[in-house]
């Protein structure tokens, strides 16, 4: 038996709500924006639908990762540094030696997410959080566009 499907619920996508979240980073690492995403959905009156998140930069990204053990995020930074090290002989270095590796890390991790909203809450797993991944070594102000599509109530 392949799996069990919960009862299907249909609704017209009558609501589109949009806002921009500005996130101050401290340099390379992860910033948890799960609470801000939840507040946005609540402010939009979102009941059932989809939360879309889009990073408006090419050297930072978005990811859903474990929110219980901070060592996971430390290890992820290490893994990304191994995949795209600063000293790899990149041609593009107009903004410094961390610039091109940051673009590669963004390519690997992505700039958009879609999270289901069910009953007014994000349908994240128990240990999942939504993060901005900063791939540059110095602090930045990053913009994330949040958009709820679905049924409001």
UniProtKB/TrEMBL annotation:
Pfam families for this protein: YjbQ (PF01894)
SUPFAM superfamilies given in the database record: YjbQ-like
InterPro entries: UPF0047_YjbQ-like, YjbQ-like_sf
Highest taxon above the source species: Bacteria
Family: Belongs to the UPF0047 family.
Name recorded for this polypeptide: Secondary thiamine-phosphate synthase enzyme YjbQ
Native species: Rhodoplanes tepidamans
């Amino acid at each position: 038996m392949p799996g069990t499907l919960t009862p299907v619920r249909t609704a017209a996508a009558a609501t589109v709500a949009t806002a921009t979240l500005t996130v101050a980073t401290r340099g390379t690492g992860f910033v948890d924006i799960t609470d801000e995403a939840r507040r946005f959905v609540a402010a939009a009156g979102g009941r059932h639908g989809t939360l879309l998140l889009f990073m408006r930069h090419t050297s930072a990204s978005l990811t859903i990762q474990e929110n219980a053990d901070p060592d996971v995020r430390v290890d992820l930074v290490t893994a990304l540094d191994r995949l795209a090290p600063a000293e790899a002989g990149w041609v593009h270095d107009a903004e410094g030696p961390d610039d091109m590796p940051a673009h590669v890390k963004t390519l690997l991790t992505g700039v958009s997410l879609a999270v289901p909203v069910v009953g007014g809450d994000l349908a994240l797993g128990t240990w999942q959080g939504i993060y901005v991944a900063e791939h540059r070594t110095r602090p930045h102000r990053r913009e994330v566009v949040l958009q709820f599509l679905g049924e409001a109530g």
